[in-house]
Amino acid sequence: MTKRILLAAGGTGGHMFPAQALAETLKHEGWEIALITDVRGLKHAGKIPADPKIEVQAATISPRQPIKALIGVLKLYKGVRTARKFIKDWQPDIAVGFGGYPAFPAMRAAQSLKIPTILHEQNAVLGRVNRVFAAKADHVVSGFDVLHRLPKGAQWTSIGNPLRANIITASTRKYSSPRKTIHVLIVGGSLGARLLSETVPAAIALLPDDLKTRLSVVQQTRQESLDLARNIYKIAGVKAECAPFFSDIETHLAKANYVIARAGASSVSEIMAMGLPSLLVPLAIAMDDHQTINAEPLKNLGAADILPESRFTAESLKSILMERLNDSNWLKSASQAARTAAKPDATRRLADMVIKAAQR
Hints:
The chain is an alpha/beta fold. The protein folds into two domains: 4-163 and 344-357, Glycogen Phosphorylase B (Rossmann fold); 168-340, Rossmann fold (3-Layer(aba) Sandwich), CATH 3.40.50. Helices cover 44% and strands 16% of the residues. The protein contains 15 helices and 13 strands. The strands form two sheets. The protein has a seven-stranded parallel sheet, sandwiched between helices. α7 (194-205) crosses α13. It is globular.
């Protein structure tokens, strides 16, 4: 009899990409897959092999804004009703939640209906939604070797972050220290990052000519900053490709010699898998400062520098780039160190846990 899995994930790529990786594997093994998310999540769900894809209402709850919080609670309640009705009709064997408020309705409904549940936490700090369901979940798995804010009694295993098939394929490439051209990739997560969009071009423009002329830059740039970034690079004489989103990000990762990125779980895990030297800029407003904690393993291995937003200026970035991009020995050793932290079997391990839990 064909097994059925319900995936529940929040509205950003950081939550959706691991769900996609698991779906790709289980679909290949004959599972029927459904996805519950919100309208934002559906924008990242095009390549997830799930049918049906159910949209639910979801909202962030902030106690500092009582009226907004009340509206949010009502939306979540409606979302739970939608998810509960779907689960009763579709009857999944297991539900797997990947965090984010849009995952709340499905996981609440699944646990109330006694469906086996597994939670995957991408970050090194358990997110608010996953915290709600961790104690009653069959298992909690995480992307890093530490997991802060885990409720007492929860069953936890570190397996790594499932990566999409295109990233896994690209990660087989062998890193080469740059001889002439230095390929620099700048990414700001699935939603982009204004700070990176505007400060990185300014910093690169400050580099000495003998270094600038060697650079080939690919930068994810917010739409409103595109013209500014392109103009700065043009005036500086730097070869650069700027776009709000790259559908073929694996191609650019495979070519890169150095990456500047936020420290979201997916970004850090992809950097590890690809064995890339990096500069990580944690999002200052991230809950529990989890992006800094995500970045620390790479820093401790000597594979990355961490530059907080409070010190992220064109001048400070210029200094780091001059030191790192001119040091081929460091680039090579950093690449090797980053790859030692990779967990390329994360998707397989999660799939095996799903198969086992679905049998109970």
